[in-house]
User: What shape does this take?
Amino acid sequence: MIGLLMPRSVTAAESDTEKRFLSQLVWCTDKDKPADKKLENLDPKLGGKIRKIFKWKNYFEVSRKVLSLPGDDGKRVKISGRCEVIVRELPGEQMEVALFGDKQLAGKAVQKYAPILAKGEHLVIGGDDKDNYGDAWLLVISAAPGEK
Assistant: This one.
């Protein structure tokens, strides 16, 4: 859900500050790790948080990419062979993340970025895995290493 955002003035110091985020594409499945795919087990700390919410047995990191604002603001960034993301900085210290799978909009979310950077919270967008019934994928946005 996107609400009405009130613009705010941005100081010169704020506009020069780059905000860096780590994006991780995660495959959620009850299957074992395929031998023919280059997948990493999800970090145990993040995996523990995700397991409290979602039902799958295994969570594999498909890819990771550092995104920045304002550097990547409004640019389409390739996350994997089939996924791309667009991040935009919005007024009110918010960010919009639009995720595309196979060139189709798969999901969009708006969230304040300060808690992600300062408190270690995450923005998560997910959906069904169209190739594997019962599986899903997640895009997890968190603070880039060194940002906390």
About this structure: Residues 19-143 form one domain.
